[in-house]
Write a structure and sequence with these properties.
The complex is a heterodimer.
Chain A lengths: L1 H9 L1 H10 L1 H8 L1 H13 L1 H19 L3 H16 L8 H5 L7 H14 L4 H4 L3 H7 L5 H13 L6 H12 L4 H17 L4 H12 L4 H14 L11 H7 L5 H18 L4 H10 L7 H10 L8 H10 L8 H14 L9 H7 L4 H17 L1 H4 L14 H14 L5 H12 L4 H17 L4 H11 L5 H17 L5 H10 L6 H13 L7 H12 L5 H17 L1 H16 L4 H14 L12 H5 L23 H5 L33 H10 L2 H23 L1 H4 L4 H13 L4 H15 L4 H14 L13 H7 L7 H9 L1 H6 L5 H10 L4 H13 L8 H10 L1 H6 L9 H4 L10 E4 L7 E6 L12 E9 L5 E10 L4 E3 L4 E4 L4 E9 L7 E6 L4 E6 L7 E3 L4 H10 L5 E7 L7 H11 L3 E3 L6 E8 L5 E8 L4 E8 L2 H16 L2
Antiparallel strand pairs in A: 1-2, 2-3, 3-7, 4-6, 4-8, 5-7, 8-9, 10-13, 11-15, 12-13, 13-14, 14-15
Helix pairs in contact in A: 2-3, 5-6, 6-8, 10-11, 11-12, 11-13, 12-13, 12-14, 13-14, 13-15, 14-15, 15-17, 16-20, 17-21, 19-39, 19-41, 19-45, 21-22, 23-25, 25-27, 26-27, 27-28, 27-29, 28-29, 29-31, 31-33, 32-33, 32-34, 33-34, 33-35, 34-35, 38-39, 39-41, 39-42, 41-42, 41-45, 44-45, 45-48, 49-53, 53-54
Chain B lengths: L1 E7 L5 E6 L9 H11 L8 E3 L4 E7 L2 E7 L5 H19 L4 H6 L1 H11 E2 L2 E2 L4 H7 L5 H10 L10 H4 L15 E14 L5 E15 L5 E6 L5 E6 L5 H7 L1 E4 L4 E10 L9 E9 L5 E10 L7 E9 L4 E8 L3 E5 L4 E7 L8 E8 L12 E8 L8 E7 L6 E15 L2
The chains are: A alpha+beta, B alpha+beta.
Family (chain A): Belongs to the adaptor complexes large subunit family.
Organism (chain A): Pagothenia borchgrevinki (Bald rockcod)
Keywords (chain A): Cytoplasmic vesicle, Golgi apparatus, Membrane, Phosphoprotein, Protein transport, Transport
Chain lengths: 1111, 418
């Protein structure tokens, strides 16, 4: 082969000419056997080709002509054929001789053709090789690169040695583009001939050392394909890859990050053990690496994160802002698998952002969020509303969102979620409605508080018109009843009544099973159901028949007097059934329950076998078992192991030697070695810090070297990390000067506009720092430490730790100053908690939201009533006393309203129509026997009363009800709004008198703002009373619940446990209303209300007193 | 990674195939067709499918399926993102991504695909780089090419490919130097039937059109950057500058591009520009239903609401609609059951109203659920979150460019449940 080939090479030009003369001849001179293959090929495709024959002949002529333009046209047509999947292989000889054409476009098209058909026409393809070999030596890097690209794409085993040689040469090329191409060629050669592995690994090893960002992605790809297990090749390049990562092109980033995830899991110890403890402390604010690091050390925890581990986390974090969704997902999975538990949360926001992207992206991201949300609800709970379903979503998106909402459900938000589900149940997409019912079932089992509510809601659904909805409800109810079968005979009876109307077999089977299982609770109904079943037995589905046999057997055992004959009849029917499953079951049951001489011992146990208490089914997420796969992978998406999936290994118990990653020589990385040395002197806790600051410096330098671009934007975020460490060890002169250096380096680039005022502030505050150059203070340092300078040093750490967050809330730096002034007189007690809370604002859900849910939950009952479509029997509602009724007020009784009844409540949301109005929801119900028409609002008094009416309701059917919303401007008084509710025939005068608490809107503010505002509203504007609290009300939860139930205000985060603060504004005039409850000894408390509306204050005081005093 | 690509039209015909490794028979698509059949709606086809030997990852865009075949483990988003880039590129080159346009330009498309992937791994996906290698077709150029025989394919290595700023080519020259930025915000909201906002958020994007000579270095600052909660950037934006100063600093690509996407922090109350009063009901007795919709301005920041449009996906049972609109026109598509009411400008003095009756298929049960309304609108010259660009500066070049910033607010996914 080789001989033939080398001669070919020397004669390539001649051979081409020969090909020109006649391709057929050439084939013969080269080798006989492939030509046979060729003929076979030609023959087999003969029939297809027949049709194209004329066209192809024509093409051949064009290709062989001397005119470039004709050739180009022909090639374009040929490529057109290829793109359509039509066979154009017979043109190979005619095409291949144009490989050396001067016309670039023609040449490229020939390449396209060549790569497509070379595999089928191996020896003809060889003709082109010499052209490529020449091109490999071309001075133009582009030509060298593309020559290697095409050469390596020709899948002809015979040229493997040539490819090998070319790859080796190209890997040492001066042009990074050519080196990149060689990295791609490695994979191609490996798939062509796996025996070359060893040699290829050598090339990979060499290319991994490459410092060009262009090469990095491609060579890691080659590494992953050829030798993913050779982790040892990565050691020396690990730090370089981490540092280059930001500048690598996006596709390369994905590959490198997934590889590094695997790498890190083999090299570092688990950061999670301590994480669990942190979680309990609830130190979510301490995201930042460095503060966390210190926490470790100060608390003398055994675990210290490997600096390399930290390096990876730090350098991937900015990529969360990438526009490429694959990169974002990849970083998210890296954090999920590698980051300490309390740091994982930073990926949440970015993942939620991806949900705005294309549908397919949503699908994958939602799948991953579903898996994540099982383990860590807290991560996505603040973004719950982003998972609300829209009617325009595709079905698979809807079900995934539903899955996530179910995972996120907990005691606090369940009412909101159930209310949302209630809308979904009515969806026109019935598959989705059924899935929602399943989800309600899961919520009901997971959260015991709402089990009853859900159950009654589901029972209401049983009267739904849609069959699938009913069937699904039955199945879910069955599961729920099984978990707590006591006191539910009512529901079972209800289901028995519905039995005749249900045709879906799964639902019928479920009801039969329930009857049998709880036949002792419905002793009268069960035999009757069996009687009905006996009639229809032959026409039923198999699954129903089986359950009928079961029911018969159970009834026979408990109530043989009534059901003996029926059972025997059914068993006889079963005996001759067509399905052998049923015959089999019948035979088994008969032997078991009917005593005869053959049946023996088993008979005695029949009752214990059939009526054994059965464990309730566990309703679990279908995403539970996906945890085993690495997130973001194809395997995770499919929930099966895909070919080539690399398992993530478990963390090693003991970290392998970390010095393997040290690089001794070569410029930028060299600083590592001395830095390690230094740390040993300064003792363990500081070592990590020192390590970092050096690391940053080095990175800075490297960045500035690599491109002018990145030097001008040197990392201040990272810098501030080192800065804060410096803060912690201020005494250490050496450290501070060290990091001072690093930041001064970057000072040039940092914002000129902001530094000025800050410098001043700093010098005023901390004179001892003057010795250092002012440039050493970075913005974030300033910003984080501002208010806490006098507080304990640990709080200083924490605040600087979360600098990224606080920066968000910092625009003109004025609030900062305010804080500065204020915090001085304030007690030290607060400082720590307070600061972290402030910094947290960005990440955690606004704390004011939490108590809201308790208010919402009270209206849940009425919401679930909405599940019913129309006239559902009121008996069912009685079964759900678990939630107190909403504060619904009667507007019009149905007796006075001639059948029209109206109720209203305050939904406590900003009014849709005008901000100065209070939103009121009115539920109109027609309890007469004829439909009411044209329901609208008529005259109103006082005359100037500003009401936004609801649209005229054209028609209200008997027993139907409709909820409308209106807006009323009460002008901050509790004077009743009188108006007339009119139908076509009648007019009824009604009035709405608001409780004073409903005239407010919650207002969110910080504790500082609160005290400031309170200071302005003293004297006349303050009303207070000392009250004796009921002991049940002294917990903070109970207090906020009581207060929020009375008035619509927002809770202000408070640093003192005994003081509870609430803030609101009046709806019309926007006057501030501040409520403050200060607990004193022996359950007395001081209740203070500050507002300029003194009338309101006294009324509010009276209203608030009452529930707090009462138990 | 990516083995093959098939382009499939709405009817299920494969009209283009491209293989980056050895050829895979197009019969592999049969599994896809099966899934497509099952899904009924093309949107419901699962994006990731498993077949005995291959995995199929597909996207559906502009009525076309882009179906890729992979054989081994690969992050599915990697493939999906790439397929969308292919569609973006085609759109960028030919103005639209449609079957007929792809067929007309099949050679260019093929050349593009060849450059975008090497052995299944993305090679050049930046539009600037691609345009240097394969010039987009213009009428003038095609005339010149036929006369002179020159080609659309560049013979030099694109400068971007090598530099650390692959998105910009060297030697850009313009006589008029201009940089325009559009700040476009979309309101996503769900409003429940009583008019309460269930969920609302603002997503924004800054689209740029930059035609500047040389290597300009731009920086953009905002009056109120604290509004921006979560951001994602074009690779050209220096992340570290953003982290430290909340300023966008970048060397822009040449031409049109998306500079950044952002999400407005959820603490800020989202102002919903319009309110909708609606009453849709179906009656048990008699095959008819009533529909009554009024739209009014709520908080529009003193600007007019334009291009107002309401789209309703009616239940299957609704046969026809007999409505009167006080403003604009309505159409009801019988096949898709979509009612579209195109209102146009919202006049606060005279609120647009659409009312009338809907007739139901006789015998069909009354639909249980009322359809939800999707609202479209535009407000010119305002970003609803209040975001404002304060300054745009240019360094690195001497000339004075024209600069401009435009604001626009649109309804994104704005749904009113009824």
């Amino acid at each position: 082969m080789d001989v033939g080939f080398s001669s070919l090479r020397s004669e390539a030009v001649g051979a081409m000419r020969m090909a020109l003369v006649s391709a057929e001849n050439l084939q013969l001179t080269l080798k006989p056997e492939p030509s046979q293959e060729e003929q076979a090929l030609t023959n087999s495709k003969g029939s297809i080709k027949e049709t194209h024959k004329a066209g192809n002949e024509d093409l051949k002529e064009m290709l062989e002509s001397n005119k470039e333009s004709l050739k180009l046209d022909a090639m374009k047509r040929v490529v057109g054929l290829i793109s359509k999947g039509k066979n154009a292989s017979e043109l190979f000889p005619a095409v291949v001789k144009n490989v050396a054409s001067k016309n670039i476009e023609l040449k490229k098209l020939v390449y396209v053709y060549l790569v497509r058909y070379a595999e089928e026409q191996q020896d003809l393809a060889l003709l082109s090789i010499s052209t490529f070999q020449r091109a490999l030596k071309d001075p133009n890097q582009f030509i060298r690169g593309s020559a290697l690209r095409v050469l390596s794409s020709i899948r002809v085993p015979i040229i493997v040695p040539i490819m090998m040689l070319a790859i080796k040469e190209a890997a040492a090329d001066l042009s990074p583009y050519v080196r990149k191409t060689s990295a791609h060629a490695i994979q191609k050669l490996y798939s062509l001939d796996p025996d070359q592995k060893e040699q290829l690994i050598e090339v990979i090893e060499k290319l991994l050392k490459d410092k060009s960002t262009l090469v990095a992605g491609s060579v890691v790809m080659a590494f992953e394909e050829v030798c993913p297990d050779r982790i040892d090749l990565i050691h020396k390049n690990y730090r370089k890859l981490c540092n280059l990562l930001v500048d690598v092109e996006e596709w390369g980033q994905v590959v490198i990050i997934s590889m590094l995830t695997r790498y890190a899991r083999t090299q570092f110890t688990s950061p999670w053990k301590e994480g669990a403890i942190f979680d309990e402390n609830n130190d979510k604010a301490f995201y930042d690496s460095d503060s966390e690091e210190k926490k470790d050390t100060t608390e003398a925890k055994p675990y210290i994160m490997d600096p390399d581990h930290r390096l990876l986390l730090r350098n991937t974090k900015p990529l969360l802002q990438s526009r490429n969704t694959a990169v974002v997902m990849c970083v998210a999975q890296l954090y999920w698998h590698l980051a300490p538990t309390q740091e994982v949360n930073i990926v949440t926001k970015s993942l939620v952002r991806l949900l705005r992207s294309h549908r397919e992206v949503q699908y994958i991201v939602l799948q991953n969020i579903a898996t994540m949300s099982i383990q860590r609800k807290g991560m996505f709970e603040p973004y719950m509303k982003s998972f609300y379903v829209r009617s325009t979503d595709a079905t698979h998106i809807k079900t995934l969102k539903l899955e996530i909402l179910t995972n996120l459900a907990n005691e606090a938000n369940i009412s909101t979620i159930l209310r949302e589900f209630q809308t979904y149940v009515k969806s026109q997409d019935k598959a989705f409605a059924a899935a929602t019912i399943q989800a309600i079932g899961r919520c009901a089992t997971n959260i015991t508080d709402v089990t009853d509510t859900c159950l009654s809601g589901l029972v209401l659904l049983l009267s739904n018109r849609d069959e699938t909805v009913v069937a699904e409800s039955v199945v879910v109810i069955k599961k729920l009843l099984q978990t707590q079968p006591t006191q539910h005979s009512e529901i079972i009876k209800h289901m028995a009544k519905l039995f005749d109307n249900i045709t879906v077999s799964m639902a019928r089977a479920s009801i039969l099973w329930l009857m049998g299982e709880y036949c002792d609770r419905v002793p009268k109904i069960a035999p009757d159901v069996l009687r009905k079943m006996a009639k229809t037995f032959t026409a039923e589905e198999d699954i129903v028949k089986l359950q009928t046999v079961n029911l018969a057997a159970k009834l026979y055992l408990t109530n043989s007097k009534q059901t003996k004959l029926l059972t025997q009849y059914i068993l006889n029917l079963g005996k001759y059934d067509q399905s052998y499953d049923i015959r089999d079951r019948t035979r088994f049951i008969r032997q078991l329950i009917v005593p005869n001489e053959k049946s023996g011992a088993l008979n005695k146990y029949a009752r214990r076998i059939l009526l054994a208490p059965k464990p309730a089914p566990v309703l679990e997420s279908s995403f539970k078992d996906r945890e085993r796969f690495q997130l973001g992978t194809l395997s995770h998406s499919l929930n099966t192991k895909a070919a080539g999936y690399q398992e993530l290994s478990d963390w090693p118990a003991v970290a392998p030697d970390q010095s393997v990653r040290n690089v001794e020589v070569i410029e930028p990385v060299q600083e590592w070695a001395p830095s390690v040395g230094k740390t040993k002197k300064s003792g363990k806790p500081k070592s990590a810090d020192k390590f970092y600051s050096d690391d940053e410096e080095e990175k800075e330098e490297e960045g500035s070297e690599s491109s002018k671009d990145s030097s001008s934007s040197s990392s201040s975020s990272e810098e501030s990390g080192s800065e804060s460490e410096e803060e912690s060890s201020e005494e250490s002169e050496k450290t501070s000067s060290d990091s001072g250096k690093s930041s001064s380096g970057s000072e040039k680039s940092s914002s000129e506009s902001e530094t000025e005022p800050k410098k001043k502030k700093k010098t005023k505050k901390a004179p001892q720092k003057k010795s250092k150059p002012p440039a050493a203070f970075s913005d974030s340092d300033e910003n984080g430490n501002g208010p806490v300078a006098q507080a304990s040093s640990s709080s200083a750490e924490s605040s600087s730790g979360s600098e990224t967050d606080s920066e968000d809330s910092d625009p003109p730096a004025t609030p900062q100053k305010k804080k500065d002034v204020k915090s001085k007189p304030k007690a030290e007690v607060k400082s720590k908690v307070e600061v972290s809370l402030l910094d947290l604002v960005d990440f955690s859900p606004a704390p004011t939201n939490a108590p809201k849910s308790s208010v919402i939950s009270s209206s849940l009952l009425s919401d679930l009533e909405g599940l019913s479509l129309s006239n559902i029997s009121s008996t069912m509602q009685v079964t759900t006393p678990s939630f107190g009724p909403v504060k619904t007020y009667e507007l019009l009784h149905h007796m006075t309203g001639k059948g029209l009844s109206a109720k209203y409540h305050f939904p406590r949301q900003p009014c849709l129509y005008e901000p100065s109005m209070v939103a009121v929801q009115v539920i109109l119900t027609n309890s007469s026997d004829h439909s009411l028409e044209e329901i609208h609002i008529g005259e109103r008094s006082p005359a100037g009363l500003n009401i936004h009416c609801f649209n005229t309701i054209e028609r209200l059917e008997p027993e139907a009800s409709v909820t409308v919303s209106m807006g009323i401007d009460f002008s901050d008084s509790t004077q009743a709004a009188n108006f007339q509710l009119c139908t076509k025939e009648d007019q009824f005068s009604v009035s709405i008198q608001p409780a004073v608490g409903e005239l407010l809107m919650p207002s969110s503010m910080t504790e500082q703002d609160y005290s400031k505002e309170q200071g302005k509203l003293l004297g006349m504007n303050e009303t207070s009373a000392t009250i004796t609290m009921a002991t049940a009300n002294t917990s903070s939860q109970a207090i906020s619940k009581q207060v929020l139930s009375v008035c619509n205000v927002g809770e202000v985060p408070s640093s003192q446990k005994s003081v509870h603060r609430f803030a609101g504004r009046t709806v019309s005039s926007g006057a501030l209303v501040l409520v403050c409850l200060e607990l004193k000894e022996s359950s007395t408390a001081l209740l203070t209300i500050n507002t300029e509306k003194s009338v309101m204050a006294s009324m509010l005081l009276r209203d608030l007193k009452q529930p707090l005093v009462q138990a | 990674m990516i083995h093959s690509l098939f382009l499939i039209n709405h009817a299920g015909d494969i009209f283009l195939e491209k293989h980056w490794k050895s050829v895979i028979s197009r019969s592999v698509c049969d599994y896809f067709f099966e899934a497509k059949e099952k899904a009924v709606e093309p949107e419901n086809v699962p994006p990731v499918l498993q077949t005995p030997h291959h995995y199929l990852i597909s996207i559906y865009r502009d009525k076309l399926f882009f179906l890729s075949v992979v054989q081994t483990e690969v992050p599915p988003l990697f493939v999906i993102e790439f397929l969308h880039r292919v569609a973006d590129t085609i759109q960028d080159y030919f103005g639209e991504c449609s079957e007929s346009l792809i067929n007309d330009n099949v050679v260019t498309v093929y050349e593009l695909l060849e450059e975008m992937l090497d052995n299944g791994f993305p090679l050049a996906t930046e539009s600037n780089v691609l345009k240097e290698m394969i010039r987009p077709p213009t009428i003038l150029r095609s005339v010149v090419n036929t006369l002179t025989g020159s080609s659309n394919v560049g013979d030099k290595l694109p400068t971007g490919q090598l530099s650390s700023i692959p998105w910009r080519r060297a030697g850009v020259k313009y006589t008029n130097n201009e940089a325009y930025f559009d700040v476009i915000e979309e309101i996503d909201a769900i409003v429940d039937k009583s008019g309460m906002t269930v969920f609302a958020e603002i997503q924004g994007v800054i689209e740029a059109s930059v035609r500047l000579t040389g290597m300009p270095d731009l920086s953009m600052t905002f009056m109120n950057p604290s509004l921006l909660d979560d951001v994602s950037f074009h690779p050209c934006v220096r992340f570290k500058r953003w982290e430290s100063e909340r300023a966008l600093s970048f060397i822009p690509p040449d031409g049109n591009f998306t500079l950044m996407n952002y999400h407005v922090s959820s603490q800020n109350l989202v102002t919903i520009p319009v309110y909708v009063k609606q009453n849709i009901c179906f009656f048990e007795t008699g095959p008819c239903g009533r529909l009554d919709i009024t739209i009014g301005p709520k908080q529009t920041m003193g600007k007019t609401v334009e291009a107002l449009m309401v789209t309703i996906h009616m239940p299957k049972a609704v046969l026809s609609a007999n409505l009167t609109a006080t403003q604009g026109n309505y159409t009801y598509d019988l096949a898709t059951k979509v009612l579209v009411w195109d209102i146009g400008k919202l006049n606060p003095q005279k609120l647009p109203n659409l009312r009338g009756s809907l007739s139901l298929q006789s015998g069909a049960p009354k639909p249980e659920d009322n359809p939800s309304l999707n609202i479209d609108l535009k407000i010119q010259q305002v970003a609803i979150s209040g975001l404002k660009v304060s300054r745009l500066e240019m360094n690195g070049e001497k000339y004075k460019p024209f600069k401009g910033v435009k604001y626009l607010t649109k309804a994104g996914n704005f749904q009113v449940r009824t």
